[in-house]
Amino acid sequence: MVNFSHAIIRYKKTILLVFLCVALLSALISLNVSVNYDMVDYLPKDAQSTSAIKIMQEEFGGETANARVMLTNVSIQEALQYKQKISEIEGVTSVSWLDNIVGLDTLQTTPLEFLDSSIVKNYYKDKNALLTLSIESGKESVAVNAIYELIGENNAAAGDAVNAAETQAMSVSEVMNAMFILLPIIIIILIISTTSWIEPLLFLFTIGIAIVINMGTNIIFGEISFITQTVSPILQLAVSLDYAIFLLHSFRHHRMSHEPQQAMLFAIKESIPTVAASAATTVVGFAALIFMRFGIGADLGINLLKGIILSFISVMVFLPALTMISYKAIDKTSHRKLIPEFKKPGNLLIKVRIPFLVLALFVVIPSFLAQSQTEFIYGMSSITSASRVGKDTAFIEEKFGKENVLVILVPKENAGKQSEFCNVLSEIPHVTSVVSFVTAVGSEVPPEFVPKEVVKEFYSENYARIILYTDTAEEGETTFDLVQTVLDKAAMHYDTYFLAGQSTTLFDMKSIVSTDTKVTNLVAILGIVLVLLVTFRSTILPLLLLFTIETAIWINLSFPYFTDKPLSFIGYLIISTVQLGATVDYAILLTNAYMNNRKILSKKDAMQTTLTNNLAAILTSAVILASAGFTLAFTTSNPIISELGTLLGRGTLLSVTMVACVLPALLILLDKFFRKKQTQYNKELKLLGE
Fold it and tell me: For the chain, which terminus, N or C, has the lower number of CB atoms within 10 Å?
């Protein structure tokens, strides 16, 4: 440790240069990291809907249909011309319309009134044509912009690919917008809580270097999700800023009695174990996300895990080197401490601890039950509800009605069996139309006598494709019941079957997420309990700290239930682990300080001293993290990111309230019990060592 600290001070200029070069290189490399806006890509490979999409691509070729274009006031011939032009747009892999179902020659030569109206109405109605498109993943933005340019303002485009393009347009500048608002807030907070005008810049520069390197090292994954791109930099800044604050606080303390070099040696030695313990709890919380089967958790978890480690390295290596070069500037820009002493708030918190404890015990069970009953949103349609995409979707539904398409793949067997199955499907509530070879052409007509472009829409070498038009929403209880019913009916007729469609994907997402929630919470809790056991060498204290933070989490996640607002499943999955990992540090800091003060003071005096000396540090950290959350909430146009920001901001304030108001009551109330247990534990360790 001593050699490590001496090396940092001796080679400070080299360290500074190396970090700056690596950061510059990382900034350039980060431009080549692609961003994935398709949540479907993060489903497990063995999910039913994922398998269905893969087989459909292999058997029928091209991408799965993921967009719709409505052309208003057009003739059959004009619609066909538009179809041809759209099919030539870069990124559009296929365009399907009525001619693919009944045949081009039939459509051009047969009056519409002689065609099956139950089929025609899904594609052409009141001189409005509805085309179905497949757009290549990764090219949504280019393709959709070209489609908009072609169809103009009077026509409409909707679907998952259009949503993805809109989401991409939203996300491009939102990280920078959030940072522009968040950084001044953090600087003001740091100026108030430090004694030098330049120290806040050193903090931000140190963590900023780590953030840039983290973004650049994402090149090893090739791509990251848009959730990670938007959330990760802001979370990394807010969570790891404490490490830099602690190191410089320790340096400032030792400067009072030592020369700068010696003071930094003491600061590094003092900070590494404390900051490492703090980082460990955060790392455990983020690492729990990796255990999700839904890949978005691993994507964000690995990125944040890597970010915290890089922040730790930057604080322990880069910041000491930077400080030793700039400590004279720190001295010249020093100012008196602007933050007030917390003697009065400390006394007040001691007095109100029992009422707050009673209140916490009163709300913990209802909050736990309420958060477990929260209704979730799994789709992305809410993101674009206020944009042109939302208006176009409503316009299409106005003309053609609410339409939700499901596609079933069944073995290519005899037409009679397929006809029987289609009849069963047509009787299912909310199924408005069933389109297949046997319904569009007839079970008695051999495929050899039908135009090839029609046959290839319904038959591949091994499978028959059946298209279901339903009037359900993209998701919800009714929709998911319908998906389950279709799967059950398919199982009654075929041994092998696959169901695809956006609702099927969300159905799989729901079942996977329900398992992921339990796994990630369990892993996070067990991991943090283990860290706390090692830190305090007590079995009681980890439970007290866990109760404190988990209660705050349950209260936070119960808000959607009591306000009757559905919650994005992403927000629920992420916040339950992030809030635990990021805010349990407040409880650790308070408990550690109390245990030290308790060696020489009575219970109440020890807690009063603890609150007076540590409340400012806890509030500084909490306000920064809460500001990061609320900044995300108010600067993003993406409802999912906004909701996550609100959960983070509100959750942080609830956690700090529990730590400052409830934890003191628990520590004082159970002081005798856990101190006795800890003394016994230490004796056992001593005997074991002997």
Answer: C
What tens digit of pLDDT does each residue of 320-374 get? 999 999 888 888 888 777 666 666 776 778 888 889 889 999 999 999 999 888 8
Burial class (CB in 10 A: 0-12, 13-18, 19+), 673: exposed
* CATH T-level topology, domain 1-32+173-337: Multidrug efflux transporter AcrB transmembrane fold (1.20.1640)
CA distances from 365 to 113, 351, 371, 468, 552 (A): 63, 25, 10, 44, 12
d(Cα 130, Cα 144) in Å, to the nearest integer?
16
Give the chain's end-to-end CA distance (angstroms, integer): 26
Share of the chain above pLDDT 90, in %: 22
Cα-flanking dihedrals φ and ψ of residue 432, to 5°? -90, -25
CATH fold, domain 340-373+537-690, is Multidrug efflux transporter AcrB transmembrane fold (1.20.1640)
**CATH T-level assignment (fold) for domain 63-169:** Alpha-Beta Plaits (3.30.70)
Are the C-beta atoms of residues 103 and 77 closer than 8 Å to each other?
no
Of residues 140 and 690, which shows the higher confidence score? 140
Does residue 191 contact residue 203 with C-beta atoms inside 8 Å?
Answer: no
Ranges for all domains in the chain classified under CATH 1.20.1640.10: 1-32+173-337, 340-373+537-690
- pLDDT tens sequence across 471-511: 888 888 899 999 999 999 999 989 889 998 888 988 888 88
Domain covering 388-507 in this structure, CATH number: 3.30.70
**Residue 71 clears pLDDT 90, i.e. is over it:** yes
